[in-house]
Amino acid sequence: MLELLFLVPVVPFASFLWLATAGSRTSRKAVAVVGVGSIAICTVISLLITWSYLASPPDGGAFTQVLWTWISVDGFTPQIAFYLDALSLIMMLVVSFVSFVIHLYSAEFMLEGEGYSRFFAYMNLFVASMITLLLANNLLLLYLGWEGVGLCSYLLIGFWYQDSANGRAAQKAFIVTRVGDTAFAIGLFLLFTHLGTLDIQALMQRAAQQWPVGSTLAIVASALLLGGAVGKSAQLPLQTWLPDAMAGPTPTSALIHAATMVTAGVYLIARTHVLFSLAPPTQFAVAVVGAATVLLAGCSALVQHDIKRILAYSTVSQIGYMFLALGVGAWTAAIFHFMTHAFFKALLFLVAGVVIQALHDEHDIFRMGGLRKDLPYAFWGFVIGGSALAGLPLITAGFYSKDLILWSAFSSTQGSTALWIAGLIGVLLTSLYIYRLIFLTFYGKKQIEVAHRPGWRIKIPIVTLSVLSLVGGFVNIPKALGNVPAFTDLLHSALPAVIERQASMITEGLSEGIAAIAFALGLGFAYLFFLHKRTLADILASNAIGRLIHRFWFADWGMDWLYDRLFIRPIIWFAQVDRNDFMDAFYAGVAGLNEFSWRALRETESGRLRWYAAGITAGTVVFLAIVLWT
Amino acid sequence: MNRTDAITLLPLIVVAGTSVLAMLATAVRRSHVFTLCMTLAGLAAAFGCAWPAGARAPRQVTALLIIDDYSLFYFRLLIAAVFAIAILTYDYLRKRDLHREELYILLLIATVGAMVLVASSHFASFFLGLETLSISLYAMIAYLRRPRPVEAGIKYLVLAAGSAAFLLFGMALVYADLGTMEFARMAQLLPGTPGDALLISGMVLIITGIGFKLAVVPFHLWTPDVYEGAPAPVSAFIATVSKGAMFALLLRYFYSAGALANRHIALIFTIIAIASMIAGNLLALLQNNVKRILAYSSIAHMGYLLVAFLVGGEFAVDAVTFYLVAYFVTTLGAFGVISVMSGGDGEPEQLEDYRGLFWRQPALAGVFTVMLLSLAGIPVTAGFIGKFYIVAAGASSARWALILILVISSVIGLFYYLRLVAAMYATPDKEPAAATMPAAFIGGAVLAALTCVLLWLGVYPNPVLRMIENVFPK
Description:
heterodimer, A: mainly alpha, two-stranded antiparallel ribbon, 4 strands, B: mainly alpha, two-stranded antiparallel sheet, 20 helices, 78% helix
């Protein structure tokens, strides 16, 4: 059964090819059948593989399928090969399943407007690239998938290309992530020149053998990979592209910019965890980046008006939790949170799409309200997804995964109380901003009439993801609540366990209790400010300091402003000042030289036969002269 | 000549026999489709005959021909290329009102010449093959009997005859010095003889003859005129079959005879390679005639091939052979697009004819784009792998100067390939001058197949590489 592995990326890719070449001439129904069906097949194969993997695990918990070697020159032998272990298995399963429900949702959601087949072509290509990224056994193939998902992200953000603002958002996403990708590429060169391979497992082995813990090379290499991860996963300081990426269709935001692609950075770090373990300073940086992103993005989410932007900042913040977990060596906790996050964040985006579509493309939550009765699916989807996001104790998936991260942040030898507290404040912020969203949207006075109600292809994904957002956490129940660490145990064949500190005052149960209190506080504040007495919030925000903070947070801590002043304007200014420098002259000179040579050589092509014959004879005579007189 | 000899020669015999049959059939009754089918069947049969012949290889058949894995590999390559050209020819001729059947007969005879060249192990067969190929080509180039094609045909006739005279005189000089015309015998004698003037001069004259066929600088001047004047499928034949067969011979002759060990000969080839790479790419730079662009581009590609040829060693042989395969596929595809696009009374030659092609015929524009990118050596196409191996072969023996020139001239080359690609995707501002016909199914199928092979070679080159490695056992 494991031999079917190659089909997982191949099926969506084949479907992409078909949609790209013949899609525009096919009926929408056929497009939907192919576009959604291919992902369904892909999901079924993933399930079969998972079943087979669990029933009879391969030797060493890993299965490698080598399809072929692309080129082979002097030790550089990039293979087209897939590597399946517990880590890539879980990622593959979650990605294909979530992709499937979102594709099903899109079949109805995208029905209006043009570009139906184009949309599914891009989405299928995205799934193929993402699975390639996850299953790649070498970093070159992984990089191919990495760039592939980046391309699809670009194409889908700018999907409605007639509006130039969407095009700009797409460019921003592409360029900002490019900064990270460049670092990643340099990291690849560095690893290859020093360790002589790009095969991930061999690379990790050689790194562990040749580089001592804390060696400069390990730190530099892992820092470069971190650069790539930070760009793709929208973490500080490269997070600015993600909120703008919401310009794309909502299913795209759900799939690419929430559930799957943006967690590629998390996957990359988990995949190369050996390297990060060899570089404690980098790993600490991962934790700090994560904690800082949790807080900053949480605050930004608190003051946004646009429903999708709130969710975007929330995504940034939640991926921050995953980075925090990676940074303290809680690799499995990061992947656990990736999984639950994929469920509830995809759900939140899908129901947000329902709300937006129902209200004639209205994004501002202050112009919504009272939708509870009219859109029950959206309402319950938001309640379940939002509670999972905020970590409603015991009954939601988010609670289990987030508490594992919080506890690890405290208990790991690489953790600290400060990181733990940052995480707890994050819980409070999360609960505050998501219930603010829910209260403003679904309670209070109705402002716009509902114009559009979802059909079955939208309801099924919402119900499915709601169920998973609730029960998805039960695969890993902490010690204090029954101790069923199935998920962690499975992953331990691929990722090491957390090394816990000895003896401390705070126990796991206590940490969970405090997190529950933080959650309740957030919920309480949200109720107080946005449901009970709206005026309270206005009072807070209307004084000078409040206004300043509001503006500051609303603009994501002024990061865009800062980058504009720090990079964009100086570069534009310099380019204008430096318009006539010698480099231009150099290139113009090269071009001129080529053109001159062309003109000169063209004269030899006179079209006259006698001249051609003379050319042949002269050439022979010169060659004869060379051989006879040298 | 006994039965085993006959079986080993079967591919050659079948192609020759098909040409005779086609000639007889045409004399009785003209039928375009029938002639095409007969040609294709004959080629397919010849292709199949390579297996029984392969079971008896290697075998020296008379002093003239050697049928070994090397010959058979090139037989297959040539036959496959001619197969595609024959279909493109059909698509090209069916829109024209003239006697069509004779072109297939000429095509088959020319193919026999090319196959003899590939299998030759003797000066006599070398010259016979060359002339069989050339004489058919004169008629093929001028086939449309209009001023331009006839002019091209006459130019080719005069120059080919002249360079054949050089070649023949060179052979005479070598024979006068060594007393043999067999390549294998020469290989034994060459190391013992000090490079005296007679022998070296003879070799230089032979290089002239070969250089003319390959169209390398300074023997290249005829190329654009002939490519431009000849019908597109014939240009494809000249660019692939004619040149490929000659290169195969060059590889065999200079390797088996060990002539490259002579530093003068190596120097001359170095000069030719460098000059071809630079001049070929520069000449195409701002050219507006697409067929001329492809002609200049082929000059540059022969220069790249010579780089690997100069490196020597087994790795280089593999690199040259793979590059030739990639070049065959790509060039056939590029000329195939021109051929499929041409209407009843002209070919779309000017860059302007391609402006906005994507908006009119997206599939055709897509195929042409892939072909051009492969010529430029962009990854995921066969051209990239080919060029990669040539650079790797050069780097393995530290020929940095050659590699540097290859890289720089490739960059220059990128300009005119992309210029053409950009034109295809630009929004058209006026109706094209030459009317383009929708591609017929059969022509389109050839193009689709070539595109698939091209991408397949670029992504999954292993099977072909392994096949080539088996042809040249390490």
